[in-house]
């Protein structure tokens, strides 16, 4: 049984180790020195490797950045000796390493065994384990979960018998456990020292399991992270000469709301939630289980780890010769980094002897080669060793040296070239023909800035043309302008570059918003109007709404109705358009006729009525007003020589027309004149009487 990660220091664990995500082909060897170096893995990852890497630009002062310490658990043998990627690159003057992190959906590991003999001196047991240990991370309902996955080969070095098992441990928090409700696979959940764990033993009927290994044996491991019916799944595979065999595919059945799937994580910045375990990828040798240790009596093993970078499997760029996430150990082991001079493949060579634990190579010791091609898939031959790739690119980790490269599109040779790589170098090569892809805009005012972004790269201009130089592929573009009054009609889409230049016309137009006027109160079929200016008019509207397409701004509108006894309220007002659609309701109110009729005036005489503050005049006997329901005060003007019967009053309008016909003008008598005439007449009579009396006296 394999002693697992959770109870490493308590020596209490059952069958819990494994070997996970592996595959790496290697061939003849030459020792290669391993000097400390600046980590170029980060700049490589930022060049489109397909691996998520949060440290693509390393800090200038590395001492300000914390990293894990790989010596926390093991500093000397016995230890889990082999090959490990801790997410730690270049060593610094402060005795630390430059951290980095990445995640991947697949790891490959290989152990090529030329010779292997171990023994536990206390028991005489000649069994051991080869463990591929990885860390799976995902978020379910925004809660983070961490699981330690082990893909393990148990080997009896005396009989050369081999058996494969896997373990999964819950590292989400201190004391976290596994339950039958957690995971479902070909194995089962068991309990050890109050800690639940999952394990599965490969069936003895599977090809390559429970067999006797040949004298020269290669054991390959592959571990994939996938999704099955919306839940995370791990595929555990091996290949020891009988083809790839998937012997377990456990599904985390509780996780039905996965909000983030990081898959397998390597992180040199942080420890796992228990505070001391590592987010690493390690392929190690150790005792057969339960925290046991063994001694290397004689060995010659080549170990390699590769990860899926989004285009191809690539060897890790930094390696230590020991792991930390297991308690099974081995001693009397020497592990050094070497490479094949024929093709630059890097591996760790494990032999018996007095060894030490250290970083055996970093990205300063190796070279990174990135090749961009015009093919969605293909292969590249490096001095005769073939690597397959997808999505137009291939990224390789190689030892420094000169290499003859042959690039193939299927079986057709596309290009031959030779490169000379130096230690610590990142060499990008683009062998794909490129074409001018131009975008020409129309509709923007001269000098207006605009931009086009293609696959994350943005080009800006104040002229009407933007040009990209691109290889054959399908690209996603977006177009925008900081002048938010304008918007491209086709502001995003895909373009296909296929062996020729490409031109696209981008038409900008002013961004408009729907401004809807809604009428209320009119009977069906009524015709009404809305005018915003002398040129922006609705025309006749027969429905209950009308919409304008307007840019941001402030507008004054006026509404009216044709030949209907209704009046809009309000008949005019203002609206402000500010980055969104809007609507306004115009209420039409029924109007009633208030008729004033006079009698007594001669034809053609002008008279006036003031009603509700509005004065109307007429030279006939009728004055008309149009009013809503309500009570209104009126006054009637006087006319010289005429008396008015009712010169003021109130009018009640209540759902019908009203006639006010009590306006009567009558002649006005001039009693002063009459009095004067009487006085004059009286005086005349008196005078006449006096004259007569005088004459009679004579």
TrEMBL record:
GO terms for biological process: proteolysis. Keywords: Hydrolase, Membrane, Protease, Transmembrane, Transmembrane helix. Residues 42-71 are annotated as: Disordered. The chain crosses the membrane at residues 673-694. One of its GO terms (molecular function) is peptidase activity. The lineage of its organism: Archaea, Methanobacteriati, Thermoplasmatota, Thermoplasmata, Thermoplasmatales. This is Thermopsin family protease. It holds the Pfam family Thermopsin. It comes from the Archaea. It comes from Ferroplasma acidiphilum. Residues 42-70 have a biased composition (Polar residues). Its EC number is 3.4.23.-.
């Amino acid at each position: 049984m394999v002693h697992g990660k959770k109870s490493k220091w308590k020596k209490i664990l059952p069958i819990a180790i494994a070997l996970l995500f592996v595959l790496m082909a290697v061939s003849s060897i030459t020792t290669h020195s391993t000097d400390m170096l600046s980590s170029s893995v980060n700049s490589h990852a930022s060049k489109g490797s397909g691996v998520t890497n949060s440290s693509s630009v390393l800090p200038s002062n590395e001492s300000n950045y914390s990293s894990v310490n790989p010596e926390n658990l093991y500093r000397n043998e016995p230890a889990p000796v082999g090959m490990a990627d801790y997410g730690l690159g270049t060593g610094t003057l402060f005795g630390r390493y430059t951290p980095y992190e990445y995640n991947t959906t697949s790891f490959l590991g290989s152990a090529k065994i030329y010779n292997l003999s171990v023994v536990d001196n206390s028991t005489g047991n000649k069994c051991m384990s080869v463990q591929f240990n990885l860390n799976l991370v995902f978020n379910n309902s925004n809660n983070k979960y961490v699981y330690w996955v082990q893909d393990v080969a148990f080997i009896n070095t005396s009989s050369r018998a081999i058996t494969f098992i896997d373990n999964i441990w819950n590292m989400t928090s201190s004391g976290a456990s596994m339950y039958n409700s957690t995971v479902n696979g070909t194995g089962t959940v068991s309990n050890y020292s109050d800690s639940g764990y999952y394990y599965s033993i490969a069936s003895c009927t599977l090809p390559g399991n429970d067999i006797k290994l040949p004298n020269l044996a290669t054991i390959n491991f592959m571990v994939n992270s996938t999704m099955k019916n919306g839940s995370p799944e791990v595929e555990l595979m091996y290949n020891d000469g009988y083809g790839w065999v998937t012997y377990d595919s456990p599904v985390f059945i509780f996780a039905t709301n996965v909000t983030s799937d990081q898959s397998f994580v390597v992180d040199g910045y942080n420890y796992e939630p228990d505070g001391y375990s590592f987010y690493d990828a390690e392929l190690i040798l150790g005792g057969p289980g339960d925290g046991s240790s063994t001694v290397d009596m004689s060995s010659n093993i080549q170990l390699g780890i590769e990860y899926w970078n989004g285009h191809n499997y690539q060897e890790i760029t930094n390696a230590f010769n020991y792991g930390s996430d297991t308690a099974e150990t081995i001693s009397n082991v020497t592990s050094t980094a070497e490479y094949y001079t024929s093709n630059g493949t890097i591996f760790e060579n494990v032999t018996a002897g007095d060894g030490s634990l250290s970083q055996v190579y970093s990205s300063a010791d190796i070279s990174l080669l990135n090749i961009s091609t015009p093919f969605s898939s293909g292969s590249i031959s490096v001095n005769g060793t073939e690597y397959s790739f997808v999505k137009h690119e291939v990224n390789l980790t190689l030892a420094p040296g000169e290499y003859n490269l042959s690039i193939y599109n299927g079986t057709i040779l596309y290009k031959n070239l030779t490169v000379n790589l130096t230690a610590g170098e990142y060499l990008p090569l683009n062998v794909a023909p490129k074409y001018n892809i131009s975008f020409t805009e129309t509709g923007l005012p001269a000098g207006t800035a605009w931009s086009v972004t293609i696959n994350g790269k943005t080009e800006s201009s104040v002229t009407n043309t933007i040009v990209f130089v691109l290889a054959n592929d399908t690209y996603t573009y977006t177009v925008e302008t900081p002048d938010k009054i304008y918007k491209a009609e086709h502001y995003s889409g895909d373009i296909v570059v296929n062996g020729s230049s490409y031109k696209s016309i981008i038409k900008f137009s002013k961004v408009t918003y729907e401004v809807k006027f809604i009428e209320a109160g009119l009977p069906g079929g009524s015709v009404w109007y809305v005018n915003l200016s002398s040129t922006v008019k609705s025309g006749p509207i027969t429905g209950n709404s009308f919409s304008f397409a307007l840019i941001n701004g402030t507008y004054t509108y006026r509404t009216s109705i044709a030949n209907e006894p209704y009046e809009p309220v309000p008949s005019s007002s203002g609206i402000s358009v500010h980055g969104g659609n809007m609507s306004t309701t115009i209420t039409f109110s029924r109007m009633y006729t208030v008729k004033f009729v006079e009698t007594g005036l001669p034809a053609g005489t002008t008279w006036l009525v003031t009603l509700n503050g509005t004065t109307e005049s007429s030279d006939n006997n009728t004055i008309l007003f149009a009013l809503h329901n309500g009570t209104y005060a009126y006054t009637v003007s006087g006319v010289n020589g005429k008396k008015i019967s009712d010169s003021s009053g109130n009018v009640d309008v209540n759902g019908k027309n009203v006639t006010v016909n009590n306006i009567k003008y009558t002649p006005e008598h001039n009693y002063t004149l009459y009095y004067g005439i009487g006085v004059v007449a009286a005086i005349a009579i008196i005078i006449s009487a006096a004259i007569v009396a005088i004459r009679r006296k004579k």
